[in-house]
Amino acid sequence: MANVRNVSAERIRALEAENEELRRKLAALQNADERLQQQKNLLQTIFDHLPLMVNVASEGQIEIVNRAWERTLGWTAEDLAAEDTESIIEALYPDPRERERVHSFIREGKAEWTDFSTRTRHGRTIETTWTNVHLEDGRWVGIGQDITRRKRAEQALRDNEERFRAIYEHGRMGIAVGDLEGRLLFANPVFEKILGYEQGELIGRSFREFTFDGDLCQEDLYVREMLEGKRDHYEIEKRYHRKDGAVIWVVLSATVVRGSDRKPAFGLAMIQDATERKRSEEELCRAQAYLAEAERLSHIGTWAVNVITHQIIFWSDEHYRIFGFDPEHGLPPLSAVLDRWHPDDAAAQAAFYDAVAQNATIGSNSG
After folding, report:
1. Strand pairing class (303-306; 264-273)
2. What is residue 367's predicted lDDT score, i.e. its pLDDT?
3. Identical fold at 173-273 and 280-366?
4. How far is the C-alpha of 92 from the C-alpha of 99, rounded, in Å?
């Protein structure tokens, strides 16, 4: 009898030990299940809030999509449950050639980004890029991104580059790009022609080599002020030495181009040949000097008046002497001039200007 009791007690202790082990295993399983649920919730949160489109699909069905996919393409998970994969692909890619590219892309399963023109459920065409991964169970995961804005920005950049290239190569202005030491990095054909150099001969040379010595000091000051951020650009008339030794005049407008860190990166200059204009201005100055001297010697003055406004717009030096006006006081008013006419002539002269002004006004209105 005692032996039976001993066996029963041992059996009870064994069962209690087994129960304790089962409780520990159950608790471990519960903890593992909780951790698994936490990981699942974490993955679901990432899946739902990932700023990329994600879908899981098989041959017959797009099974799972995230919120970014729904928001970008317009179909909800509930909509997709009623559609097969091919009908959705046909809607996304109505162009047969683009659709065939998509099928090839899915079949190949290359983990690399490929761009497609994609049509949303609402009929808007967007630019997208996709990569996909094949799973062991035959399904595939597609990951995509709306790159419409990036594509437009890239196209705008290409358009700007084309416009600049057209201006650079075929424009009427000389264009030069230099480093911060003043050495030329680029020079367009017009600038090369202005200085008389062949293509590429100016590259690497400093602008100081062909700038007229008397103009270097002022331009060096402007360049230093630009690099120090004291000015954004400058414009000057300066002289250059051509390759053949001739001295020419140009109008130069220069600016400094800054990098993303706002530090100077390189200089850009627009140059226009002003030699002919300067020559014309000099000839005009000489002609005016000859005329002034001729008026002085012959005691003949010239003047011009706007007959509508009765304002004098030109009064020669000799006229100042004849009428006794001081040149430092500027152009005299017509009333002051008439006051110095003889009384017998002043009234007739005033009437003449009034009549001319009236006819000019009538002619202007009728035109």
Report:
1. unpaired
2. 41
3. yes
4. 8
- Model confidence at 212: pLDDT above 70: yes
Q: What is the pLDDT of residue 123?
A: 94
For 77, 154, 168, 177, the CA distances from 160, given in Å and listed in that order, are 42, 10, 12, 17
- Given this model, what pLDDT does residue 171 score? 85
How is residue 231 written in tokens? Answer: 């000015």
Res. 1 pLDDT band, cuts 50 70 90: low
CATH architecture of 280-366: 2-Layer Sandwich (3.30)
Structure tokens at 28: 């471990």
| Matching CATH number, 173-273, of 3.30.450.20, 3.40.50.620, 3.40.50.920, 3.40.50.2000 | 3.30.450.20
Q: What is the pLDDT of residue 361?
A: 54
* Sheet hosting strand 264-273, strand order edge to edge: 184-187, 174-178, 264-273, 247-258, 233-241
Structure-token match 């002289």, residue found: 239
pTM over 0.70: no
Q: Predicted confidence band at 111 (pLDDT cuts at 50, 70, 90)?
A: confident
Structure tokens at 76: 């909800």
Which candidate, 243, 249, 256, 245, places its Cα nearest to that of 272? 249
Asked if the model's pLDDT at residue 363 lies above 60, the reply is no
> Is 50 exceeded by the pLDDT of residue 117?
yes
How much of the chain, in percent, has pLDDT values that exceed 70?
92
CA distance 135 to 59: 12
Report how far residue 45's alpha carbon sits from residue 190's, in angstroms, rounded to the nearest whole number.
61
Nearest to 92 by CA among 130, 64, 65, 123: 123
Tell me the CA end-to-end span of the chain in Å, nearest whole number.
142
- The sign of the dihedral angle between the CA atoms of 272, 275, 278, 280 is negative
Write b or e for each residue in 99-126: b if 16 or more Cβ atoms lie within 10 A of its Cβ, otherwise e: bebbeebbeeeeeeebebbbbbeeeeeb
Length of the chain: 367
Nearest to 234 by CA among 250, 252, 217, 249: 252
